[in-house]
Amino acid sequence: MVALRFNMMTSQKKFSIPKRGEAWVLKSLGKKWKDYKCNLKGEYVKKHKTKDALLKYRPSRIPRDQWRGLVSYWLSDKAKRRTQANRNNRSKKMMPHTGGSKSIATLMNEQIPDANSGHERVQQTSRMLSVAENDQHSHGRRGQ
């Protein structure tokens, strides 16, 4: 999708970003850009079901040609398949990930002390998993 893509070259001309913070700034901007497009889709696609209606009620902040490209992408078969696959995957998710950028495996490895016996590691892992399952039941699954 070419339309509505964050243009890094333009941002480098408009902003003076120190080298040491550049990766963080670009990652943060990318996330905000992705979230913005997600919010637009949620707001406009639910309200205006057809392509014609979506094109007619374009947000004033977005140029017409970019909006047309984004709407075309949202309504394409490829985007619809991806949306459905993501929906299916989220519905199968049993345990929410609340560890930030670290994977569950890394968190577990850091919390379990090195033990001489594998039995102690298995017990500790079982305790952690049962705590996670209890959290899941107390918080409910996403989408319910």
Could you write a compact summary of the structure shown?
This protein is mostly helical. It contains 7 helices and no strands.
Integer count of domains: 2
Number of strands: 0
Query: How helical, in percent, are the residues?
Result: 55-70%
The end-to-end distance, rounded to whole angstroms, is: 32 Å
Helical segment count: 7
State which percent range the strand residues make up: under 5%
- Which secondary-structure class do the elements indicate? mainly alpha
Main sheet properties:
none
Q: Overall 3D geometry?
A: flat
Return residue spans where pLDDT drops below 50 for at least 5 consecutive residues: none
The rounded Rg comes to 22 Å
Q: If you average the pLDDT, what whole number results? A: 79
Order of helices and strands: HHHHHHH
InterPro entries: Probable_transposase_24
Pfam families: Transposase_24
Biased composition (Basic residues): 80-95
Biased composition (Polar residues): 100-109
Tell me about this structure.
The chain contains seven helices and no strands. The two termini are 32 Å apart. The chain has two domains: 20-92; 104-137. It has helices spanning 8-14, 19-47, 51-56, 64-74, 77-92, 104-111, 118-139. Helices cover 69% and strands 0% of the residues. The longest helix has 29 residues, at 19-47. By secondary structure, it is an all-alpha fold. The radius of gyration is 22 Å and the shape is flat.
